[in-house]
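Schema walk-through. Below, the input block comes first and the output block second. Nothing else is stored per chain. Lengths vary across the set, and this one has 155 residues.
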Amino acid sequence: MSLGLYLVGGVAAGLGVMLVVLSLLSRRPPALGLTDGRLTPCPGTPNCVTSEAGAIDAVGPLDFQGPADAAWDRARAAITALGGRIVADQGDYLRAVFTSPVLRFADDLELRLDRQGRVIHVRSAARVGHWDLGVNRRRVLALKSRFRGCPGTNR
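--- output ---
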């Protein structure tokens, strides 16, 4: 066998091991939740988006008309329809986990209901790595689209 094949095989094996390790690391949930009544700020890496301060690539909140509780129910339904698993639902705070199909990478989605502002703030972040290929941004955009498609929203 040629040296080139050994080199390619070694690189592929190393990459495979690295992906498995990252997948295992992503299974440990981070310390999330509300900080001073707001969602945890993003860490300054492009694998996190939020409608509150602190994201490199900010996204807007989900806005709604009508009863806040009905909007909150629609947000829950949109999360589960997109494949998320709700792991914390505490009053006006919700956290869900999305898991990638192949390597089982876990991402966290958080929502905070702002009843007075008539919006639901959102944060979505990968647990590991630096860049997520835009997965969390697309997830939030899909959530917004699904949420808007429900009755009682204004945008």
